[in-house]
Amino acid sequence: MPWVVERSGPFQHEASLTTVILSLKRALAIPGFRITWTPEKAVVSADGTVCQTYGTNQVTVPDPDGNPMALPGRYVTTWVRRPGGAWRCSVNVWNADH
Questions:
Q1: Are residues 49 and 89 in the same domain?
Q2: Which of 40, 64, 81, 83 is the most buried (most CB within 10 A)?
Q3: Do residues 59 and 34 make contact, with C-beta atoms less than 8 angstroms apart?
């Protein structure tokens, strides 16, 4: 599938930021592509510098006939607060619900 990030790096689980961005740009260019997240819970560290969110997601892509095909799943995201206060995604893991 064109929205899957290709693996790189010595342990075959690392992807460069450039690879992730290019993969997302390709995915967003697919007519009918859509992804949504529905958080179930967010847990913030006592010092306010790390947060984890988890919940459900849904990726919608066109099937071979061009009709929307929904792929439900679950996700966990770790966020890190940057200097200046902005949050940045540090780790995002998701899987399909099937």
A1: yes
A2: 81
A3: yes
